[in-house]
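Quick note —
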Amino acid sequence: MRCNTRKTRKTRCPKAYRRKMMYANQNGMKIKAEPEAKGQCPICEQELIPKCGSIKIWHWSHKNLVECDNWSEGESEWHLGWKKYFQPDQVEVKMENHRADIVNKSGIVVELQASSISPYEILIRERFYGKMIWLFYLPNAQIELREKKAKVAGGKDFVTFRWKHPSKTVWGVSKLLFIDIGWGRILFVKKVYDRCPCGGWGYVVSKWEFLRGLGVVVEDGA
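Predicted structure written out below.
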């Protein structure tokens, strides 16, 4: 389920799908959620309310249940967990009427995707952002990996994979594709074949290697 927005009508999002935001605007500054804090959405400038419980990561949510970004999805702890490694000015960056999840120091947009998305939506976002990569969250994808040695001296070892029930969404991706397969592992997909059973090849990197590749200064296990 996704909440769409049109100029003539805004959509009320059920609570379970309400967009969580790590930052709100306050007097031109980005601030994190804290009890009793006040802030506004950078897109619609409407009031946000802080959600500061004892279990989930503290975040902001629209008070009026109206989602102003029609590319917004029901954001999870996974989204917020990745965003915490980046500086405030690199997270939820306003780009016209949209909020890019992450924009690193090199201007690369990192689109965090945990819900289903159509090939058409993928095309539209890739055209809009231009310089971008995808990070999909598919921890239960049942991707069978097979390690392979580099074919040339000094080359990098790689993996081939078989994907019995693939998420066909990824077939429409033309930008760099990374898949969070869980347990701190990221599959950098170099080639995926658009047929079933699905296969391809790529590299497996750690979460920390992925972050460092985006310019984040972080130690393993930080």
